[in-house]
Structure formats: structure tokens, C-alpha cells
Prior knowledge:
This protein is of the alpha/beta class. Helix content is 37%, strand content 24%. The chain has a 4-stranded parallel β-sheet. It has a 4-stranded antiparallel β-sheet with strand order 5-6-7-8. Helix 3 crosses helix 4. The chain is elongated, with a radius of gyration of 23 Å. The two termini are 34 Å apart.
Amino acid sequence: xxxKTLIIHQNKILHNILSEISDRMSFxxxxxxxxxxxxxxxxxxxxxxxxKNLVKRNYLPLENLPLKLNKLIxxxxxxxxxxxxxxxxxxSIGKYxxxxxxxxxxxxENKLDLTEMESNIILFLKKSEQPSSVKKLQKNVWGHVPDxxxxxxxxxxxxxxxxxxxxxxxxxxxxxxxxxxxxxx
Length: 185
């Protein structure tokens, strides 16, 4: 089974055309009369339809018709590439989602804009199995020589914790331990 699925909504002719050349496609093709489907079973999916103002995600409208077949396939492939890019840019960190493209930390509908350095701190702490010392953060996040005497790490962590506390009322996202900082999962 392909990891990508194109769901063709209420367009049997398009389904038949694409099915005939499906062996040259990098995605599976499925026809749907309605959109009351369990989309989780499709993995990475895209819905192609003539229906306008569809509120579903992964939606590619059929517009500017007629459209050459090779242009349609190109649009489908571009839409799948964009989806994969967006999927790869979202990282789950406990109950939060971090979007690496927009540098937004979110919880439900609440969103917090982060600086590039704040995103890098969170990513590094998430990847670390053990608490990370100030020297380890200086070296790996800032690229500083660990022997420098600076409070840059502590200041950034303090400000990041404050932003998270103010936005999400979470005092325990980044915790301090005797041997460093850690993300609480």
C-alpha cells in the first residue's frame, strides 16, 4: 500500500482516468461519493474535489478547468510535498506541538511565538535523554566555548519559562535539576 492516498470526491471520470495511469503514480487512488470516511486509515492523504469552501484539511480544489492532465498531476504532487514538509516540521513535545517552520509552540488553540534560539533550546532539550548542563547548552545551542563565563543560557531559559507560564500556565515545561535543564514530558 502506498503511503500517500489521493481521494477523488464525486468525480468518477477523473477517478477512471487517473486509475488507468495509476502504475505511474506515487500515490494510491481512491474514489469517494461522500467525505464521511475514516481518514486515519489513509495515512498521508489529499482530497481532490470540485466542491468549494470545503473545511477539511488536505484539500485540493479543482479550479481553472479545463486543466491539462500533466498539470493536474503536478499540482497533486506539489500538494503532497507541501503536506510532507508540514508534517516533518511539527514535533510533539509532551502535550505541546512545536512547528519548526513558524516557530510556534501550541497547546490546543493557544499559540506562542518563539524566537529561533528558544526553538533551538526546546529542540535540544527534547532530544537530550539526560538533563543538559549550562555548559552543554552553551556548546551545542550557542556554539560557545564551554569555559566562557556568561549567563546567556540562564537568561534565555528564564525568559522562555516565563513566556510559557504566561501563555499556558505551565510552570513545569522546562525543569531545573541539580545537573541541568530538562523538558518534562
